[in-house]
Amino acid sequence: MTEQDPLVIFTPSGKRGHVPRGTTVLDAARRLGVDLDSVCGGRGICSKCQVAPGIGHFSKHGLTVSEDALSPINAVEQRYDEKRGLKPGRRLGCQAQILSDVVLDIPPESQLHRQVVRKAAEARAVAMDPATRLFLVDVAAPDMHAPTGDLERLNAALAAQWGLPEARASLPVLARLQEVLRAGHWQVTVALHQPHTGGEAEILDLWPGFFEGPLYGLAIDLGSTTIAAHLTDLATGAVVASSGVMNPQIRFGEDLMSRVSYAMMNPGGAGEMTTAVHGALDELARAITQEAGIDPRTMVEAVLVCNPVMHHLALGIDPVELGQAPFALATSGAVEITAGALGIRSINPSGRAYVLPLIAGHVGADAAAVALSEAPEKSEDLVLIVDVGTNAEIILGDRTRVLACSSPTGPAFEGAQISSGQRAAPGAIERVRIDPATKEPRFRVIGCDLWSDEEGFEAALGKGGVTGICGSGIIEAVAEMRMAGLLDSAGLIGTAEQTGSARCVPEGRTQAYVLHDGSAAGGPVITVTQGDIRAIQLAKSALYAGARLLMDRMGVTRVDRVVLAGAFGAHISPLHAMVLGMIPDVPLDHVRSAGNAAGTGARIALCSRAARRLIEDNVRRIEKVETAVEPKFQEHFVAANALPHASDPFPELEKTVNLPEVSFNTAVSTRRRRR
Amino acid sequence: MTEQDPLVIFTPSGKRGHVPRGTTVLDAARRLGVDLDSVCGGRGICSKCQVAPGIGHFSKHGLTVSEDALSPINAVEQRYDEKRGLKPGRRLGCQAQILSDVVLDIPPESQLHRQVVRKAAEARAVAMDPATRLFLVDVAAPDMHAPTGDLERLNAALAAQWGLPEARASLPVLARLQEVLRAGHWQVTVALHQPHTGGEAEILDLWPGFFEGPLYGLAIDLGSTTIAAHLTDLATGAVVASSGVMNPQIRFGEDLMSRVSYAMMNPGGAGEMTTAVHGALDELARAITQEAGIDPRTMVEAVLVCNPVMHHLALGIDPVELGQAPFALATSGAVEITAGALGIRSINPSGRAYVLPLIAGHVGADAAAVALSEAPEKSEDLVLIVDVGTNAEIILGDRTRVLACSSPTGPAFEGAQISSGQRAAPGAIERVRIDPATKEPRFRVIGCDLWSDEEGFEAALGKGGVTGICGSGIIEAVAEMRMAGLLDSAGLIGTAEQTGSARCVPEGRTQAYVLHDGSAAGGPVITVTQGDIRAIQLAKSALYAGARLLMDRMGVTRVDRVVLAGAFGAHISPLHAMVLGMIPDVPLDHVRSAGNAAGTGARIALCSRAARRLIEDNVRRIEKVETAVEPKFQEHFVAANALPHASDPFPELEKTVNLPEVSFNTAVSTRRRRR
C-alpha cells in the first residue's frame, strides 16, 4: 500500500489508510481494524456489512470524494435490493470495491461490536461481544484420498475463513452434522460459543446454508419472590420481550431463611425447591419465546443472577451452610453450565448458561450484577449503591476501592410485616402526602392515575378499592408523619391531643394514624400503627448501619452520591428515604434510582464476554464485610433507630425540610411504667 | 546445597545431588526430579513413597553408607508398620530424613510413572500417566472475613499442595462438596481428571479424609461380533478382570454393511442399534465390576476402540455415510465425553470416556489402537501389521513413513460363508494336518486337548462331538490340502482319481474333501468344498492385495516382518497363512502374533495421557490409502487369487516347503465348457 493507492477513511472511528485499488470495503475494514459486521464472511448474503459512502468535499479530512469512488452497484447488490431492500445510499461492504479516495460511514447496525446498554449518567457503554455468534462457512467435501471427518473439515473451514480456534461439538450436534452439511451443499451457518475464559469453543447448533438469525439470550433475575427475564437479541443487544413469574419456592417459605429451614427440616426439601425453581425457569423461557414468537432453538444463552440461597437451590446445592455462620458458599466463582442443568428446556438443546459470581455468603450474584451495571470501581466520586430486598446489599466504592456487605433489613420495605401491608399490586397505596397544617393525608393507589383528593378518584379507583399499603407507600407515610409532626424523632406516634389530629387513634397501648377509612364502602381501614413504625425503624436501622459500617471501613463519614437499585429503588422517593434516615445524608439530587440494576447487569453479561471477565475480576477484588460479626454494626444499628438519626448530622436534608421538634416520649414512658 | 550437605543417590534412575541435612526422602526426590509416588502428599498416610535405603559400601558410587544415614524409624512409620505392615528394609519417604550420604532404591511400586505394558520384542514400555489420579489435600476452613466458596478453597489447596491447575466440578459433585469437606474435617481425597489435551481439569469425585483407592479404568474393544473389556488398575496398570459379551447389534445384521443397511432401511434403526450397544456396554461394566468386587464409583475412566461403523453407532451417529463412497466420517478425531454418553452407568457418575481417533472411513479406532500398541512409527525395519476381521486393517511402515488401508476380506476368515464354518467355539476344528503321503487328515477341536488321531480322542471330545470348522481351521485345512497335493495353485480340488484320495468326493460339479465324517454317531460330515476354497481365495486375495497396494505406495516389493494382530492372529499358523499367500513372503520366524493389539492399545491409552497425544498425532500423519478407488487394487487382487500367488515369488516359503506342482485345471475347464 502506497500513497498512490486510494485513501479510505472510516467514520465514526476515524480509522484511515491506503488500500490497493479494487479492495472491497469489507476487506479494507478488516485490514484497518475497523469494526464492520459480517455473518456470511463476504458472500453478499447477510447484508450485515452495509456502509454509507460519502460523496463531495470533506473539509475535515481535506478530501474530495468523487461519485465513482466505489465500483458501481453490482448484480449481488441489485438482487439483494430487489429481494430485501437496501436503504438509499447504502452499499454492501463485501461487494463495493474502493477505486479512489473515499469516506465511508459505518452505521451503528453494521458495527459488530456496537454499543448497547448506554448509561447517560456514566458516559460509558457496553460493546456487543456475545459468547455465541453465527458464522457462515463453506466446508470442503469429503475426499477419500485424504479422509478426515466432517467435523474436522468444518473446523478447518472455520479456521481458514474466520480465523477461529478448533471447536468441539456435543454428540447430538455431531449426530446432525452430516445431514446438515449435505442439505446445505457444504455451506452451513454455525452458532459458535466461545467462552469468555478462553476455554474450548463449542458448536452449539448449525443450519444448512445461510441462517440469518438472530440468536437470542435470556437474562434472568431470580428473586426470592419473583423471577424476571429479558429476551435479548444477541446481535443488537435489544430487549425484545420481558416476562416474569412468581417464584414457586414461596410455598416452602416466604423469605430466604425459612426456605433454608425447610431444607434443613425436610429430607429432600432442597431438592423439592430445586425442582420447583427449575420448572419455573423453564416455564418462563417457554412463555417468553412464545410471546416473542421466536423459535426456542434460536435462544442459545441464559444468564442468571440471584442471591446466594437462590443460587445454591437453582444449582441443586443444599443451602444449609448458608443458614449458619460462617455462611460458607459451595462455590463463589462464576458457573458455566448447560441451560438444561438449570431445568431450562425451552431453549436450544445445546444452550449455555452463565451464572454470575457471588460476592459473599450474603452478597449474591445479584449484587455482582448491580456492581457490573453501576461500575463503582470506575466512579470518580464515592458512590453508595443500595439494593433493597429482604436483605439489603450495600456497595460502597470508587476507583480506588470497593467494599460490599449485606444487611438483614427484613421484609418490611416490601410491605410485609406491616399491619395493612401488601405487595406492590393494584389497590395498594404507593404514594402518601400529609398536610403539615391539617395533618390530613392524600395518596395514590397503584392502578389509578389520580391522587385521592382529586375529582373522580373514587370512580377511577374502580370496585377493587384501596386494599392496603405497599413498601414505597409505608415509607412515604412514615416519613410524611414525621414531617407533619405526627411522629417524633424516636418514632413514637403522638395522641390526638398531642398532635391535634383526630386521625391519631389509640391502638392497644399505642397510637395509630388512620390513613384511609374504607369501611363505609365495606373496605378496609388502613392505618399506620406503632408496630409498623417499629418494623420500618428496624429495617432502616439495619440498612443505615450496613452503609455506615462500610463508610467506617473506608474511613469516611460522608459519601458523594447514592444509587438506589432494584424495583424498590425505582419507586422510592429520595426525600422520604432520607427523612427516615435510610441512607446517609447527601444532596437530594445526588440520589439516583438505577432501576433494575441486577437485571441490567445480567443483560450486560449476556451481551459481553469482556463484561464477564470484568465482573469475575472485580468480585475477587471487592472487600467483603460481614455485618453479622462486626461489633460496630450493633452500635450503628442502635444509633440509627431515631428518625433520621440519633447522632449523625443530616445537613443536606435540613436544607430541604425542617423536621418538627416534637417528643411524645412521656406518654409512652408513662404507659411503660404502668406495665 | 553445598558439598558438605549429604549426598543422595537414587536408584534405579541414578539421579543424585546434595540436599540439606534433615530433608525428607520425598522432598529430596522432588528436588532431584526423581519419580517417587505419593497420594497423601507427605502426610505419612498413603505409604506410596516407600524406599529401600542401602547400607554399606557402594563401590559403583564410591560411597559408604552408614546405618544412621537416615533418621530412626519414627512414630508414624511404626504405627503404619503395626497397622498395615511395612516390608523389611523399607522406609516411608515422607518420614525418613536424610542425615548423611545415602543410596536409596525406589522399588517399582513406589514409582508414580512406573512402566507397564512391557513389550519384550520392542524394548519399549509405557509409563503410567493416567488422566485421573487421587490427591489428598487439607482445605482451609471458611472465613467470614474472606468469604470464598468451598470449591475455591479446595482449588487453592490443590494449587498450593500439589501445584495443580484450577479444576471445575460438575453440579452433582458441587452438591456433595460441602458435606464431604466437613465429614473429613477439611481433609479430602480428590479424584482429579487432567485431560491429555491440557484442557480444563475436573474434580470427578471426592472422599472425606484419605481414600487409598485404587481408581480403575475400563479398556473396551467394541467389535462387530463381540465386546471385550479389561478392568485396569490406574495406579499400577495391572488388568484385574476381563470380560466379554456378544454385541447385541448382531440381531440387526451379522456384518457391518448389513447394519448400515438396517439403519438406511429402517427409520430409527440407527437409534435402535445405539440403544442396544449402550445396554451391552453398561452390562459389561456392571458385570466386570461385580466380578472384580469393586465399587463402580472407583471406576472413573473408559477407553473405547472400535471400527468406524461401531464408533458412529456407539456415539449415536447414523452410519449411513459409511455405507457409500466417499465413506465420510462425522468426526475422525479422538472423542472425549462422559462415560454416561456411551450408556455406561455402572461407573463413577462423573466417569469420563475417551474414544481413540479413526484413521479413515474404513480404518477405525481399533486400527489406531493397534498402531498405538505396535508403534510402527518407531520401527527400525519395515513392518506389515495385519488385523483381520470382517475387514482387514493393514498398516505398513517404519520410522520414516506409515501407511494404512482397509481391505474387504469378508467374513470367511472368521468361519462364516464356509459350508461347515462356525465361530471359534467348543466343537470347532481349529487345527488341521494332512499327511502328504496318505492324504489322511488329523485335527484338533476347540475344547479338547488331544489330536483326532490320539488315543482317547473320542472320549475326550465329549458328547458334543465335532460341530464344524472355525476360521483358523479352514485356513489350515486349505493350506494343508495345497501342501498335500489335493489342491492345485489355482485353488481347484482334484478328483479322487487325480489325487489318489478317496476323501475327494464329487460335490455338484466340483470336488470336496471330507475332513471328518461324524455321521455314524449322528454328527455332521465336515467337508472342505470348492466353494469354501473360493471364499478363502477371495478373502486372502483382498488381504494380500491391500498389503501389496501399501508396498507399492511405499515403493518396496518386500517387507522385513509381519505382525498378525487380533484374536485371529493369535490362532493362525504363519506357515499356513503364507502357503495360502495371505501375507507377503518373509522368513517364517519374522511373523509374530501380537495378540489382542487393539485391546492392548486401548489399555495403553487408559494408562497414559502421553499415549493419547501420541496416537492423535500419529493418526494425523498416517498416510491413508483407499483401496476402493485404487485401480491397482483390482490387478493385485486378481494376481493374488493363486495359491500362494500367480506372479510374486515366495522364496522364504520355498525354503520351508515344496508345494506340489499339480494342476487339476483340465477337469474343471471341461466342465465349464459343458455348461
TrEMBL record, chains A, B:
Q: Name one GO molecular function term.
A: iron-sulfur cluster binding
**Cited Pfam families:** Fer2, RACo_C_ter, RACo_linker, Raco_middle
Transmembrane region positions?
Answer: none
Q: Which PROSITE patterns match?
A: 2FE2S_FER_2
> 2Fe-2S ferredoxin-type domain location, by residue?
6-110
Question: In its UniProt entry, what is this protein called?
Answer: Uncharacterized 2Fe-2S/4Fe-4S cluster protein (DUF4445 family)
- What organism does this protein naturally occur in? Rhodovulum bhavnagarense
Q: What is the lineage of its organism?
A: Bacteria, Pseudomonadati, Pseudomonadota, Alphaproteobacteria, Rhodobacterales
